[in-house]
Amino acid sequence: MTFQLYDTTLRDGAQREGLTYSVVDKLAVARLLDEFGVGFIEGGWPGAVPKDTEFFHRARTELDLKNAVLVAFGATRRAGVAVADDPQVRALLDAETPAVALVAKADLRHVERALRTTAAENLAMIRDTVAHLVAQGRRVFVDGEHFFDGYRHDPAYGAEVAQTALAAGAEVMVLCDTNGGMLPSQVSAVIADLVARTGIAPERLGMHAQNDTACAVANTVAAVEAGVRHVQGTANGYGERPGNADIFAVAANLQLKLGLPVLPEGCLEQMVRVSHAIAEIANIAPDTHQAYAGAAAFAHKAGLHASAIKVDPLLYNHVDPTVVGNDMRILVTEMAGRASVELKSRELGLDLAGHPETVSAVTNRVKELEAGGWSFEAADASFELLVRSELPGAAPVRPFALESYRVLVEHREDGAVVSEATVKIRVRGERVIATAEGNGPVNALDEALRVGLARHYPQLRDFELADYKVRILEGSHGTGAITRVLLETTDTTGRDWTTVGVHPNVVEASWHALVDALTYGLDRARV
Questions:
Q1: pTM for the full predicted model
Q2: Residue 92 and residue 396: Cα distance in Å, rounded?
């Protein structure tokens, strides 16, 4: 049996709090998962969820999967009902998928208390449903719900559930840590005991792990090391409660660490793109600290790390970031040393190798500024401007000189609040006074500055303020606190850049970030 990487983002992952997929969303996610190279995509529960029924209907003509097999999910027949008469089983066949996943109770306590039936009838429900679907030409996977908890309570019954499913024709018996309470050593022990007790080949077993102990990925890897060759997960670990095993981390660990060919050639490097695209569809911000796929997964802050990375990047990276479609990043902070500054500058296209005095000046300046609350971790544009101001012959051209600015906030009788800003600047030898209104002080300043610069710099019409973040710095309190402002700016080409400003006055902090944003954008527009 070849290794099976099985994704359940569209069913189990959709149970995450606050996550709702439309049918169009589900089709888009399925295409992305297929591009990542998963072997199976569980699309949902036809018959039980109308949206899922529609998804399978549309998938017949709208999905052209290259790598994955589409799977419909459902339950075994109901107690006391003939399998041919069960409408939910009929709905699984009507979905017309090549494969079907069945959830079955594997914990005797759940059989008796939740299903309110007997141990024998539960086994008959599994046997009848699997056999019926196999006879109809379907590949069948059985998800043993609460398998690990049930096995620890009554291993004989758990073993009987697994044997019954496989004997009836199931391709794989999936062992589910439904409550997510297992640890890797416990997973390994249960699988070893089950194999010894029944003689079941471990490659006929699967693993489905929830993340309630933050061990879902580790538990999945432990199962594979115990012989399992079918693993389930969800994109970015989405799912109920803390979520499921992150299929991206699972795939990377199995392929890069254990050498198992779980993905087609060339697919692993699609990870970051697919991960972030699915996050966008789910309307969930990508987790910057997600293993492998996160923006910070290969980001280095300490100067000691940077010194070693300068010699060999793999000294502080556990894998080459490019194999999963990611990049190494150097963060420049007060912890930075000369190597951090040099590497980060190189990342931004500035070679400081022959300018040791510039490296020293920038390093000292960064430490000085960060001691006062500045942070360049997320503000590459401001850092680049700082480096270039110290680098001979590379200083950025400042588009104007400030004479003064003024901002007024007016609360009108009708309840409207309007901000008005006036800037007095010198542009190419000309004194300019410009006034504009905005929905806030920063917006008004931005508008006034654009009015004043428009005639000399028409490129400004292509710039847009995309995001504005204000943070009260630690150790400062109340209305007199020091504030840090981050501005993200974009242009019509799709480029974006982030700048930073710090000051006890939030408007002045915003002004610093705004000036850097316009300076950087205009400078880049000339390149």
A1: 0.72
A2: 64
